[in-house]
Design a protein that fits this description.
By secondary structure, the protein is mainly α. 51% of the residues lie in helices and 0% in strands. It has a domain at 1-24 and 49-74. The mean pLDDT is 77.
């Protein structure tokens, strides 16, 4: 299931990039190139184009596949590369008496 969602996600990513690059910017008209002062240079408030609607749908599908992948991968079982390693007892540190004289040995002398 996860590989299928990954393939769909990659295809959606490529499609989203291409569709965004195909769209014309708001100030890309000829008036912007020659310094025209028309209000349409800054974009008109007309109806949305088909390309804009397709971009919205693909962006929603991209978000859903991202969410689905994060849920499926995050729910995976906990596996470790250390599963087959046998545990060995940890050696305990042995305390040895130091050769340096302590306060008690100085008082006895």
């Amino acid at each position: 299931m996860i590989p299928v969602i990954i393939i769909i996600h990659i295809c959606i990513c490529v499609a989203l990039i291409l569709i965004v690059l195909l769209q014309k910017g708001k100030g890309a008209g000829m008036g912007a190139a020659f310094g025209g002062s028309s209000q349409t240079v800054f974009g008109s408030a007309g109806a949305t184009s088909l390309l804009h609607k397709v971009t919205t749908v693909i962006a929603i599908v991209f978000m859903l596949t991202s969410l689905g992948l994060s849920i499926f991968i995050g729910r995976g079982g906990s596996s470790s590369i250390m599963e087959d390693v046998k545990s060995s007892p940890v050696p305990t540190e042995q305390t040895t008496q130091s050769a340096a004289p302590t306060d008690e040995t100085k008082d006895n002398q």
